[in-house]
Amino acid sequence: MTAKHHPDPSSLMSYAAGSLPEANAMVIACHLSCCEHCRKMVSDAEAVGRSLLEQLEPVAMSEGSRNQMLAMLDRIDPGSSHPVFRKDTGNIPVALQPMLGEDLHKLHWRALAPGMKQFVIPASVGKLRLLKITPGTSMPKHSHIGSELTLVLQGSYSDELGRFCAGDVADLDGDISHQPMADTQEDCICLIATDAPLKFTGLIPRLLQPFFDL
Ligand SMILES: [Zn+2]
Prior knowledge:
The chain has helices spanning 9-17, 22-32, 36-55, 63-75, 97-100, 203-212; strands at residues 110-113, 116-121, 127-133, 142-144, 148-154, 156-159, 162-165, 169-172, 181-182, 188-194, 198-200. The protein is α+β, with helices and mostly antiparallel strands. It has one domain: Jelly Rolls. A six-stranded antiparallel sheet has the order 1-2-3-10-5-8, with helices on one face. A three-stranded antiparallel sheet has the order 7-6-9, with no helix packed on it. A two-stranded antiparallel sheet has the order 4-11. Helix 1 packs across helix 3. The longest helix is centred in the N-terminal third of the chain and has 20 residues, at 36-55. The protein binds zinc ion. The site of zinc ion (ZN) has 6 residues, from helix 3. Pfam families: Cupin_7. Residues 103-194 form the ChrR-like cupin domain. This is ChrR family anti-sigma-E factor. It comes from Endozoicomonas euniceicola.
C-alpha cells in the first residue's frame, strides 16, 4: 500500500537537517519506513546538506562541536536502512519498538473518553502519544496552537481534509480545525506528535481537557 498523504516538504527538510523536535522526528521516521517517496526526498536533502558542508572553508573545531557534528552525521547516514513498517499487521513500527515492544495491542492503554484510549510515549522534546479510536467514534472538533503531526498505524479516519489510512500522515498547523472520525470496522490507531495543547471548540471538551492531557 502506498501512502496518499505525506508530511509537508518543510517537515522532511527539517528532519533531514536534524532540527525537528524528537516527537515529530519519530513520527517522520516511522512514515519513512513505509514511504519510498519521502525517503527519496530526505536522502536528496541530506545529499544537498553534505555538499554544502563540503564547500565550507575548513576551520578548526572545538572537541565538543566536532563530537556533536560526528553524532549528527551518524544519524543521517544514508546507509542506515529504514526499517519496514509492517502496517498489514498493525505492529509497532521498528523505530518505536525499543520503547514499546512489538505489539500495539499489548500496551496498557488508558481510557480517555468513550471510544478513545491513549498511550503516552516519553519524548524529550514535544509530546508523543498513541491514540486508539473505536470505529464510528469522533474526536471532539479541535484546532491547534502549535503543530500536530499524525501517522496512521492501523485502520483509518476521515475528517475535513480527507481520508487517512495506514501509512498516511497529516501534518497540520494552527490554522486547521478538524474532527477526525474512525471510519472502518477496526480500531484506528495513530501516532501523534504535538508541541502545544490542542484547542477544542466545544465547551465540554474544553472543560475536560486538563484531565485528558491532550
Ligand atoms: Zn511519504
